[in-house]
Amino acid sequence: MAKGLDVGTMNIIAAERHGDKTTLTQQRNSFVEIEYSDVAEKMLARSDVLYIKKDNQVFIVGEDALNFANIFNTATRRPMQKGILSRDEKSAIPMIRLIIERLVGTPKESGEILYYTSPARPADSPNQDVLYHQKTIESILRKLDYTPRVINEGMAVVYSELADNQFTGIGVSFGAGMTNMCVSHYGLPVMTTAVARGGDWIDSQVAEATGHSKDRVTAIKEREFEINPENPQGEVQSALTIYYDNLVTYAINTLKREMARAKVEEGLTLPVAITGGTASCKGFKDLFERRIFEANLPIEISKVKMARSPLYSVAMGTLVAARAEEAETLEELVAVDSKK
């Protein structure tokens, strides 16, 4: 039974098939450190909290990290930054290993196929090497007895969202750490690229511009923000609109430049599928449509399609790729369980 895994900066999401339904499980890609005590460890051992004990510290990992951070008035930390494992976080690998182990478990059969995402090398940060990140995730999965296969994040969007166009088109994933883009022809990547900007970049820029904390900006963005250039509702919302527009324009201009560099055939007519947690706010599709039709790309855009479930779309694409290798039909894509 093949599985898929979206290894994102903000969330890690696993997808697998159970009967006629697809099951999606999610963990926030973060952790918090608290001081060790015998009482604390005994309480944690009796709970379902995901944690690691190391020396005199306890690391709470995943969704529970946020709750513990609020209780102990401390900040969460992340194993990943800008789409790849953080070089500045010494605990990155053991933390992400624990999250992945919890999500995918052990395979039902030795060597079970598992497709996982990896970003493209960002065009605006060519020295940012993604190979170490990719091989580290591969090693974690091999030790769990899977047969890992890597898939570009933008390509996973194509598999998830463009079955009705024979997996031909452009997939764009606006994540927390990066924005990944892929041009596909009948399920084969013609060109992949990325920019080292995403939702985290927006939050940082807005926090710096307004003087609010990054956590406050993130909370506003996730709970109440709508892209509305004509009527922004407050200082933070106005700044968010400005930087969302900047990110979208920047990504599209990079896509245009990289398509020219890759000599993608002019005159093609392709759809674009967009997804990702950063693309989840109201008004995002309208903004993206305006900017991509203004960009004068070397191809025609037939339509812009927002993913049915922006947070889960990439994970669904990895599962489609895994099942395809197991000789199932690409077009057979099960709808996301509404309860997830």
Please give a structural write-up.
The structure is a single chain. The chain is α/β, with parallel strands linked by helices and 340 residues long. Among the domains are: 30-77, no CATH class; 163-306, ATPase, nucleotide binding domain (Nucleotidyltransferase, domain 5, 2-Layer Sandwich), CATH 3.30.420.40. It is built from ten helices and 15 strands. It has helices at 38-45, 63-71, 92-104, 131-143, 153-161, 199-210, 214-223, 235-261, 284-294, 313-325, and strands at 3-7, 11-18, 21-28, 31-35, 51-54, 57-61, 80-81, 84-85, 112-118, 146-152, 169-174, 179-185, 188-195, 269-275, 300-306. The strands form four sheets. The protein has a five-stranded mixed beta sheet with strand order 3-2-1-9-10, with helices on both faces. A hairpin with a 3-residue loop joins strand 1 (3-7) and strand 2. Helix 5 packs across helix 10 and helix 6 packs across helix 7. It starts with a strand and ends in a 15-residue tail after the last helix. The model is unreliable at 329-340 (pLDDT under 50).
Strand content: 25-35%
Please write the string of helix (H) and strand (E) elements.
EEEEHEEHEEHEHEHEEEHHHEHEH
Mean pLDDT: 89
Helicity, as a percent range:
25-40%
How many angstroms separate the termini?
A: 20 Å
Q: Report the top-level CATH class of the domain at 163-306.
A: Alpha Beta
Class based on secondary structure composition and strand pairing: alpha/beta
| CATH topological fold name of the domain at 163-306 | Nucleotidyltransferase, domain 5
- Tell me the overall shape: globular
Low-confidence stretches: 329-340
- Per CATH, the architecture of the domain at 163-306 is 2-Layer Sandwich
Widest β-sheet, arrangement of strands: 3-2-1-9-10
Give me the count of strands: 15
Rg over C-alpha atoms, rounded to the nearest angstrom:
20 Å
Most strands sheet: 5 strands, mixed
DSSP summary: helix tally? 10
CATH superfamily of the domain at 163-306: ATPase, nucleotide binding domain
